[in-house]
Design brief:
4-stranded antiparallel beta sheet, 8 strands, 91 residues, single chain, mainly beta
Length: 91
């Protein structure tokens, strides 16, 4: 377990999805990968979204809420329907 990087992975409709977070100098960098390809990346904290399209055309959205003390909550949606909820910690 690391406090400076975080990786979540799961299968959605036949595709392997990963959400990664890594501590950077100013803001952490969060990325959404679908089948190994990075489809969205943002460097920020607070509330934001990463979005990508699965090969079957469905939209995958990761709603990320990173608190000021490093706590992280993720809500994963597929075409607007909740499919996964995750939490962790990233400095």
């Amino acid at each position: 377990m690391s406090l400076t990087s975080k990786e979540y992975g799961f299968r959605v409709d036949g595709s392997w999805v990963e959400i990664t977070g890594a501590t950077k100098a100013v803001n952490p960098e969060w990325s959404l990968l679908i089948d190994g390809d990075t489809v969205d990346t943002q460097r920020k904290t607070g509330e934001f979204e990463l979005t990508g399209t699965l090969p079957n055309g469905k939209t995958l959205t990761a709603q990320i809420n990173q608190g000021s003390l490093g706590n992280v909550d993720l809500l994963i949606l597929l075409d607007g329907d909740k499919i996964q909820k995750l939490s962790g910690f990233l400095l």
